[in-house]
C-alpha cells in the first residue's frame, strides 16, 4: 500500500509541476550556444536583453569615402581590460596601393584633429582589400567617448594629408549591472 501511495503522490506532484510525463527536447531551434558553451542551453527568456561581455564587440562603424576616394570598409571595437582592440577592413583600396595608414583622431570626420593613436599599417592584398586587427593602449572609454574618429590615409601620408575614408566613433556607455 505504501508503494501505491508513493506512486500516486509522485504522479500527482509531476502533473502539478507541469511535468505530465512530457519530455522537452533540448536541441531545438530556440537553443543558443556561444564560444564558451559546449552544450546547447535554453533560449533567452522573453523581454530580457543580453548584456555584452567584455570580450564582445562593443561598437561597430562604417568607413565612408572622403574626397571622392571611393575607399570604404568597416571597423569593430572591443574592450580588453584597459586596452581597445580595433578590427579594421578596407574593402575598396585604390588600385596599385600597397599600404594604407589609419589612426584614431580627436574630432569628427568633418573636422579631424590631432592623432590619438595609430592603427596599422594595413597591407593591401588581392582584390584591393586590406585588413588588420590592432590593439591600442587606450581604454575603451577613451576611444569610444563620442569625441573621436577613425581615419584612413594613403601610404605616404603625413599629418596634413587629407583622409581617404573615415568612421565616426560613437560614445559607448557601459550598461549598469543588473540583479
Gist of the model:
The chain has 179 residues and is mostly beta strands. It is built from two helices and eight strands; from the N terminus they run H-E-E-E-E-E-E-H-E-E. It is 11% helix and 39% strand.
Write up this protein.
This protein is mainly beta. The chain is built from 2 helices and 8 strands. Residues 1-42, 44-52 and 175-179 have low confidence and may be disordered. 22% of the residues are buried. The chain is 11% helix and 39% strand.
Largest sheet geometry: 8 strands, antiparallel
How far apart are the first and last residues' alpha carbons, in Å? 48 Å
Q: Return the string of H and E elements.
A: HEEEEEEHEE
Helical content stands at 10-25%
Whole-number average pLDDT? 74
Q: What share of residues are in beta strands?
A: 35-45%
Rg, please?
26 Å
Strand arrangement across the biggest beta sheet: 5-4-7-8-1-2-3-6
Topology:
Layout (H helix, E strand, L loop, with lengths): L1 H15 L40 E9 L7 E8 L2 E8 L8 E9 L4 E12 L6 E7 L3 H4 L1 E9 L11 E7 L8
Antiparallel strand pairs: 1-2, 1-8, 2-3, 3-6, 4-5, 4-7, 7-8
Annotation keywords:
single chain, 179 residues, mainly beta, eight-stranded antiparallel β-sheet, 2 helices, 8 strands, 39% strand, globular, disordered N terminus, disordered C terminus
Amino acid at each position: 500500500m505504501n508503494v501505491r501511495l508513493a506512486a500516486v503522490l509522485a504522479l500527482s506532484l509531476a502533473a502539478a509541476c507541469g511535468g505530465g510525463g512530457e519530455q522537452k527536447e533540448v536541441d531545438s531551434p530556440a537553443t543558443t550556444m556561444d564560444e564558451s558553451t559546449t552544450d546547447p542551453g535554453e533560449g533567452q527568456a522573453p523581454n530580457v536583453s543580453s548584456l555584452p561581455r567584455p570580450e564582445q564587440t562593443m561598437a561597430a562603424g562604417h568607413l565612408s569615402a572622403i574626397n571622392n576616394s571611393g575607399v570604404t570598409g568597416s571597423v569593430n571595437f572591443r574592450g580588453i581590460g584597459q586596452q581597445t582592440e580595433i578590427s579594421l577592413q578596407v574593402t575598396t583600396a585604390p588600385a596599385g596601393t600597397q599600404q594604407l595608414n589609419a589612426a584614431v583622431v580627436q574630432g569628427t570626420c568633418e573636422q579631424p584633429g590631432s592623432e590619438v593613436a595609430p592603427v596599422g599599417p594595413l597591407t593591401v592584398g588581392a582584390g584591393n582589400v586590406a585588413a588588420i586587427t590592432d590593439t591600442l593602449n587606450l581604454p575603451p572609454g577613451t576611444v569610444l567617448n563620442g569625441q573621436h574618429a577613425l581615419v584612413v590615409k594613403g601610404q605616404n601620408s603625413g599629418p596634413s594629408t587629407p583622409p581617404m575614408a573615415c568612421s565616426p566613433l560613437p560614445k559607448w556607455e557601459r550598461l549598469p549591472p543588473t540583479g
